C-alpha cells in the first residue's frame, strides 16, 4: 500500500470515528475540500463494490448463459484492473452493445471457433484494443473465480480445458499474431 493509500485509509477511519473534517484536514495538511473528495471517492468505491458483489451473486443464481446484463455493470462486476476494464467498456460502447451475456464474454475470451493449427486457440479478446495478453488473463482468472452457477460453470470449465491444452493463443482476425501460453502458471497468478 502506498503512502497516499495509507493516508487516505487513515482519513476514512477518522471520518468514520466522527472526527471533524477541519481536524482531519489540519492533521494531514489538506484542505477540507480535499478531505471531502477522499471520503466521497471511498463511498463511491464502496457503492461500486457492493453493486458488483450483488450482480455477481445474481448472475450465479440466474445460471443463464444467454441472459443479458447491463454492460457497464457487468464489466464493473468482473473486478478487472483499470486497463482491461476500460478496453472492454470501450469495445462494447463502440459496437453499440448495451447488454452483455456470459456467453458473449466467454466467446470473446475463448472462442468456440477452432484454429486449423493444432495447439492454437482463438481468443477474440486479443483483438480488443488496449486489452493485451495481461488483460486476457485477468478476464480468464475472474471468470474462473466467479460462482457462475452450475450450467454456466460447466460451460466455462469446458472452455478452460481447451485453453489448458493449447500452447499458443491468437486473436480472431485473419492475420493476428499468436502468443505463447502457459495456462497453469497464468491461472494460478
Characterize the structure shown:
This protein has 189 residues and is mainly alpha-helical. 62% of the residues lie in helices and 7% in strands. Helix 2 (21-28) crosses helix 3 (32-62) and helix 3 packs across helix 4.
Widest sheet, order of strands = 3-4-5
- Largest sheet report: 3 strands, mixed
* Distance from first to last alpha carbon: 19 Å
- Uncertain segments: none
- Please tell me what the overall shape is: elongated
Report the order of strands and helices. HHHEHHEHEHHEEH
Q: Structural class of the secondary structure composition?
A: mainly alpha
Question: What is the number of E strands?
Answer: 5
* Radius of gyration, whole Å: 20 Å
Share in β-strands: 5-15%
Determine the mean pLDDT.
90
What is the tally of helical segments? 9
What's a concise summary of this model?
With about 190 residues, this protein is mainly α.
Layout of secondary structure:
Blueprint: H1 3-16, H2 21-28, H3 32-62, E1 69-70, H4 71-78, H5 82-94, E2 99-100, H6 102-109, E3 120-122, H7 132-145, H8 150-165, E4 168-170, E5 178-180, H9 183-188
Parallel strand pairs: 3-4
Antiparallel strand pairs: 1-2, 4-5
Helix pairs in contact: 1-3, 2-3, 3-4, 4-5
Amino acid at each position: 500500500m502506498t503512502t497516499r493509500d495509507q493516508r487516505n485509509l487513515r482519513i476514512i477511519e477518522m471520518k468514520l470515528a466522527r472526527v471533524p473534517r477541519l481536524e482531519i484536514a489540519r492533521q494531514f495538511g489538506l484542505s477540507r475540500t480535499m478531505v471531502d473528495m477522499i471520503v466521497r471517492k471511498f463511498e463511491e468505491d464502496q457503492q461500486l463494490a457492493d453493486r458488483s458483489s450483488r450482480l455477481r451473486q445474481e448472475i450465479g443464481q440466474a445460471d443463464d448463459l444467454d441472459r443479458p446484463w447491463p454492460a457497464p455493470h457487468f464489466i464493473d462486476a468482473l473486478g478487472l484492473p483499470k486497463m482491461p476494464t476500460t478496453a472492454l467498456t470501450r469495445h462494447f460502447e463502440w459496437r453499440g452493445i448495451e447488454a452483455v451475456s456470459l456467453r458473449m464474454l466467454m466467446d470473446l475470451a475463448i472462442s468456440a471457433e477452432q484454429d486449423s493449427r493444432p495447439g492454437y486457440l482463438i481468443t477474440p479478446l486479443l483483438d480488443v484494443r488496449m486489452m493485451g495478453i495481461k488483460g486476457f488473463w485477468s478476464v480468464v482468472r475472474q471468470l474462473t473465480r466467479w460462482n457462475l452457477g452450475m450450467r454456466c460453470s460447466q460451460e466455462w470449465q469446458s472452455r478452460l480445458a481447451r485453453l489448458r491444452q493449447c500452447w499458443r493463443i491468437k486473436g480472431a482476425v485473419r492475420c493476428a499474431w499468436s502468443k505463447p501460453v502457459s495456462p497453469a502458471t497464468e491461472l494460478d497468478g
